[in-house]
Amino acid sequence: MITIIHTISITHLLICFNNLPIEFLGPIPKGDCKFIYDSNSNKTGVFDTNQVFTIQHIRLAENNILFRAVEPIECTYEFYGQGEERVQIKFLDFNIPSESQNSSNCYANNSLQLLTGVRESKYEVTDMYCGRFLPKPIMSKGTKLALQFIGKYPISQYDDNGKGIYYGFKAEYRFLTNYGIVDGHQLGYDCIFTYNSTERKSGLFMSPNFPGFYPQNIICHFYFYGALEERIVIQFDFFDVEGIGSCEYLTASDYVEFSNFMSTDRKYRKFCGKREKFNIRSDDRFFRVSLYTNDRFDRSGFRAYYSFESKAKSSDNTSAQGFMISQAESSKLTVYLETNRLILFMLLCLLY
User: Fold this and answer.
1) What sections of 169-248 are H helices per DSSP?
2) How would you write the pLDDT of the chain (352 residues) with one tens digit per residue?
3) Among residues 9, 101, 226, 257, which is most buried (max CB within 10 A)?
4) Are residues 36 and 170 in the same domain?
5) Containing structural domain, residue 267
6) Does the reported pTM lie above 0.85?
7) Are residues 142 and 244 both part of a single domain?
8) Cβ-proximal residues to 74 (8 Å cutoff; 6+ apart), any chain
9) Where is the CUB domain (predicted)?
């Protein structure tokens, strides 16, 4: 596995399979820098702007071009998965200046851009990333994903403590089939995950690609199987699913559905929008949580904790409470009878 730079007259194609040292074969015109990552070669790896800066530095040196801060750099990163795979990008380091320090407004000529294919070899920008904060994870809609970095060769900058300021980005890519969900057992390649109390009594589960945006046009089911005398408790500590109002079809909302059955449960309404922390408890040993998304908008989804709780424990608490109430009432009744008996005895004494 080596890094290949292939030169065809004016066009230059960079196919990068890993971060091994590169060999420069010629000058690279603006806009003809491209790194291609194929899952047939590696399922995971790291890529960053230093690859581009190294190539640009060599290009300037070989052509005896003096370095200029305004020298533009444009480079595309293309990822190609296979079959049921999706591409997930997680950022490890990031600093691309924005309009202001805490602004998310990006300069078009100084940003990382998410591209969507409109036709063969043609893309349009669907999102832009900049600033000093790590962007949330990105997940492809299908087997392909493309990013484009537009910036400049970095100038050495230092903070108030004399520490060098990083410029550019560093990220990890993965070709995966589990939608970024690492807990539970996946059924085939579908977004279906099971959780069984015989294996684990509690844990964490979340929507695909959390805390990044969940993919569009998917249905994800989370099935919880308790023992005979158990029920399931779900505690949501984050919930932001795109939608409004009742989350019905006419609102074009994504939504989460809860059910004590495989089919729809009329006990629960659909849940969408941004909600504070809340709990859901099953009636019996089985519970289903399902996420339905469309192609309109997306959000970060949800994160929740599940636990399998013994029914007997709840029943014992209820019985004990009832017993305590009965004892209290019995004591009151005893005092009442004793008092009445004393009054009756005194009346009898007065009569005789």
Assistant:
1) none
2) 323 333 222 233 333 333 333 333 333 445 568 999 999 999 999 999 887 776 655 555 555 554 444 567 889 999 999 999 999 999 999 999 887 766 678 988 899 999 987 666 678 899 999 998 999 999 999 999 999 999 887 655 555 565 556 789 999 999 999 999 999 999 999 999 999 999 999 999 999 999 999 999 999 999 999 999 999 999 999 999 999 999 998 899 999 999 999 999 999 999 999 999 999 999 999 999 999 999 999 999 999 999 999 987 644 443 323 322 333 334 444 444 455 555 555 655 665 5
3) 226
4) yes
5) 185-310
6) no
7) no
8) 30, 31, 33, 148, 149, 150
9) 33-176, 191-309
